[in-house]
Amino acid sequence: MKYVDEFRDRELVRALSAAIRRLVTRPHTLMEICGGQTHTIVKYGIDELLPKEITLVHGPGCPVCVTPVELIDKALAIARQPGVIFCSFGDMLRVPGSHADLLSAKAGGADVRMVYSPLDAVKIAQKNRDRQVVFFAVGFETTAPANALAAVQAKRAGLDNFSLLSSHVLVPPAMRVILSSEACAVHGFLAAGHVCAVMGYTEYESIAREHGVPIVVTGFEPVDILRGIHLCVKQLEEGRAEVENEYSRSVTREGNRPAQELLRRVFVVTDRKWRGLGEIPGSGYALSPEFQEYNAEHRFELQEISAEESKECIAGLILQGLRKPHECPAFGTRCTPEKPLGAPMVSSEGACAAYFRYRR
Predict the structure, then answer these.
(1) What is the mean pLDDT of residues 281-285?
(2) Does 90 reside within a domain?
(3) Structure confidence by residue, pLDDT tens digits, 22-59
(4) pTM tops 0.85, yes or no
(5) In which domain, by residue range, is 276 found?
(6) Which residues, in sequence order, are bridge partners of residue 343?
């Protein structure tokens, strides 16, 4: 219990830890589907507060981490073209492609800019009508509405120099792939509260029912995560497999319907390749026919790019919850945040980055 003093709600943490210990009668493996939750767990040692029967594993909950190598290579190909301003969130700048990253492209003369919102990229396009402005639209359902709004605003403003390089991925199909694997050892899930704030959690109900696993929509504070674990373990011990909402202060079953309507207008569901997991059917968003003029891949007529991941990196196993970051032979030696072999060591939500920062 050495980490308890770092929590604001110390008594509640102690009470939840004790309640979980009283419940457990057999081993359970739980997976959190959010890189932010992973960092909270590792930073505060939540896994070390739990009884030995409970194992926490880290799923593909970091959108930066699951962006495939070839898409990074496409971003580099666009960014290096004359007259292009390439905009991205900061945690994408050091994600390795086949031979380089966006930060090294910037050092080599490419106009790569870090922005805090896709709407910032729209403003840059308005101020630079003689240049092509591309925004790297990466994320789960959480960030997709803002990127959709950027496309809508660009269309409304008549911008012909703005486009999106889209790499949006969806959580439920990835969960199904993990549960369908013969190697899967996951008994229950902590679902990402921010994704569910947008999409609701009706899609998770069929997953829980079909695969017999409890799913608890969970927040990001230490107490949220302990509550989520308690609810999940309680279901497992009682033989139930349902969806419960621990994060009711921000999440409803139906989610944010105006945001969902915006997503349906701007995007269509498509197959998407995930780093370390391969192609997952129906697991991503692509721009709809109405907004194809803002598709950067089409605008720049990129040829098909194929690339291989580092053979030394075990990111795929980590993203499936089959390995922990410290079990990688390259962890902390040949793979560090300064010289990463894979995206999970770079991203602010990556599991490897969390272990390097808090457990090294």
Answers:
(1) 96
(2) yes
(3) 999 999 999 999 999 999 999 999 999 999 999 999 99
(4) yes
(5) 69-169+255-299
(6) none
Q: Per DSSP, what are the bridge partners of residue 54?
A: 28
Cα-based angle 51, 55, 56 (whole degrees, multiple of 5): 120
Provide the number of structural domains found in the chain.
Answer: 1
Closest C-alpha to 251, from 183, 195, 177: 195
221, burial (CB in 10 Å: exposed 0-12, middle 13-18, buried 19+): middle
Residue 91, in any domain of the structure: yes
- CATH number at 291 reads 3.40.50.11740
129-133, 169-173, 227-231, 275-279: segment of lowest average pLDDT = 275-279
What is the pLDDT confidence band of residue 7, given thresholds at 50, 70 and 90? Answer: low
- C-alpha pair distances (Å), 68 with each of 166, 170, 208, 330: 12, 14, 28, 20
Does some domain include residue 221?
no
Residue 2 has pLDDT above 50, yes or no: no
Please state the rounded mean pLDDT for residues 69-87.
95
d(CA 54, CA 51): 6
Q: Is 182 exposed, middle or buried (0-12, 13-18, 19+ CB in 10 A)?
A: exposed
Q: Is 186 part of a structural domain of the chain?
A: no
Q: How far is CA 247 from CA 3, 77, 218, 223, in A?
A: 23, 41, 5, 11
3-state helix, strand, coil in the chain (%, to 5): 45, 20, 40
177's enclosing H/E stretch is: helix 171-180
